[in-house]
Amino acid sequence: MMYLKLAWRNIWRNRRRTIITVSSVAFAVVLSLILESMSLGSHEHMIDVTAQFHTGYLQIQDPLFEDEPFLDNTFYYDEALRNTILNADPSIDYIAPRIETFLLAAGDLQARGALVMGIDLEMEHNLNRLKDRLTEGRFFEPGEEAAVLGAGLARRLYVEVGDTLAMLGQGRFGMSASGLFKVAGLMNHPLREMDNQIVYLSLPTAQWLLSAEDYVTTILVTPDEIRNTDPVSESLRDALGSELRVLTWPELMPELLQGIEFDKIQMYIMMGILYVVIGFGLFGTILTMTLERMKEFGLLLSVGMQRFQLSGVIFMETLIISLMGVLSGSVLGFPILLMVLSQPGRTKW
Amino acid sequence: MAIVRTEKLSKVYNPDTVPVHALRDVSIEINEGEFTAVRGPSGSGKTTLLNMIGGLDKPTSGNVFINGQEISKMKDSKRIDFRLQNIGFVFQHYNLIPVFTARENVSFIMLLQKRNKKEIQQRADELLEQVGLGERKDARPVQLSGGQQQRVAVARALASEPKFILADEPTANLDTESAMNLLDIMEKMNHEQNVTFVFSTHDQRVIDRARRVITMVDGAIHKDEIQHTDEKQDA
Question: Which CATH superfamily is domain B4-226 in?
Fold first, then answer.
């Protein structure tokens, strides 16, 4: 207790210096809290958006589809398969079947390659609130010969709502695929790359266009919580056998995850530099605190204090200064994080 | 048996470059109850001798026995503990821990001795009463005059119940009144509690009151005389 008292009072011998040191530690804590949570938050957001709009948290495919993502490697999707999937694990919240391929899309003036995605609108909406992304016009009815385009693609093709879009390409097993579709609406896709090439059709319309009635390329499965991804994938594998392949989000977006890793390393290097700088500041304070008291230490050793006891007191002083910094940094940083969290529109870009 | 005995004590500083012989074959004995001054001009080796006796410095050759134990060969941590249990110190400067109150300064040394809390509190209060600072127990060193600080230092030196107290120029920074007051207290403790004091000084006021005066010149004992022959005479 007396040692603690000694350490505590020593800290406040030079009040201003201590406050500056504590503040610098606190500053480092606040900064790293914000940096860390921002990067964590944005990375999670990137994964969520990619999973919801692109790959899904879990994806069911034909075993050949990953190597050859063509319409030839689609699989039959009916009520029975749907029930099998939904009953495979109680943690499954939603599923969304899709048929995807690349076709040539053309307006009056321009033609471009487009990613055509046939979806069940309601199921897709459960997965990613797709309907909220509509910026103009309306979505299609099931089976209607109408399309919703990414705003970026529409701009590049010079088409507007109400125009006609021609699509041309290859369907299943080499069948030719061609058709005219009314542009029913435009939407804003969160992944910029996809905004420039996406054409949504209703699932039956796309299946008809591609001569693939009742066939889909993928089924996206959403678990109730992301951490249940692995158990759900196990259950799905058990339920589906070797006919179909189940992939999880880390397998589906390796490039993104690698990018995130790289990003994290950059952040850790930044934070490392920050810590080193602050660490030197702290070290300087401790050093001057020690050097200016050498005579006092001499006295303490003379009257019978052991070296380890003296080191203990100095260690306590360092610890208290650091703890005060960390604590005040946390107290300061917490409301900032809350404020950022409560910013409306955080999840929209 | 003498409390302190030195045998042919020598100390050479900078033996390789410019050797300074601070002590040359000093052999003395100090017995229980003495009130002894070590005098001599600056550089005569007073402080060096006290540091050797106090186990603060190691001799180049020779031995120091405290209560029959050779301390100059002890390991560092053991020597520190030995000092804590056996020797009280009063220095000229930097005597007190500035962040502690008078009472905490006195208590601290007993805490290092791991005595129980109640005893520590009681003894600290008693000692501060004895040195006339009963009213200023909670003052920090900066709030005390030089004389008061030295009295706290004496109380602290006594707190550990040492075999003897070493005081290196305890009155050097004090005015006459404070110096006399401090000496009164030291003398009283010597008389009433038979506390042994050894102090270095070149202050004539202090030398006049010592019973035994050891005079050092150039690191050697020049004179060793007994001044007073009162009832406590035992040197």
Answer: P-loop containing nucleotide triphosphate hydrolases (3.40.50.300)
Are B183 and B167 in contact by the 8 Å Cβ rule? The answer is: no
Query: In the structure encoding, which two tokens stand for residue B127, read together?
Result: 């000692």
> Residue ranges of the domains in chain B?
4-226
Looking at the structure, tell me whether residues A238 and A266 fall in a common domain: no
| A56 in any annotated domain | no
Residue range B189-207, pLDDT digits in tens: 899 888 999 999 888 888 8
A309 to chain B: closest CA residue: B112
Q: pLDDT for A290-317, tens place per residue?
A: 898 888 898 899 888 999 999 999 999 9
Best mutation target among A10, A289, A303, A308 (most B Cβ atoms within 10 Å) is A303
The residue with tokens 């900078």 is B14
A243, A268, A287 - which closes a domain: A243
Listed residues A204, A220, A243: the one ending a domain: A243
Q: Could you tell me the residue range of the domain that residue A176 belongs to?
A: 63-243
Cβ pairs A/B, distance under 8 A: 57
Q: What is the ipTM of this complex?
A: 0.85
pLDDT in tens, B75-130: 989 999 999 999 999 988 778 999 999 999 999 999 999 999 999 999 999 999 98
Are residues A122 and A220 both part of a single domain?
yes
Binary contact (B80, A295; C-beta < 8 A):
no
How far apart CA A228 and CA A75 sit, in angstroms, is 25
The answer to whether A37 and B123 have CB atoms below 8 angstroms apart is no
pLDDT tops 70 at residue A345: no
Supply the pLDDT for residue B233. 44
Indicate whether A348 belongs to any domain.
Answer: no
Q: Kindly list the residues from chain B whose CB atom is less than 8 angstroms away from the CB atom of residue A4.
A: none
What does pTM read for this prediction? 0.73
Contact at CB, B93 and A295, closer than 8 angstroms: yes
The pLDDT tens digits for A70-97 are 888 999 999 999 999 999 999 998 999 9
Domain count, chain A: 2
A327: left (phi over 0), alpha (psi -120 to 50) or beta: alpha
Looking at the domain assignment, is residue A58 inside a domain?
A: no
Instruction: Classify residue A252: in a domain, yes or no.
Output: no
Q: Of B77, B89, B100, which is closest to A303 when you measure between CB atoms?
A: B89
Which residues of chain B have a Cβ shorter than 8 Å from any chain A Cβ? 54, 56, 76-77, 80-81, 83-85, 89, 91, 93-95, 97-100, 104, 107-109, 111-113, 156, 160
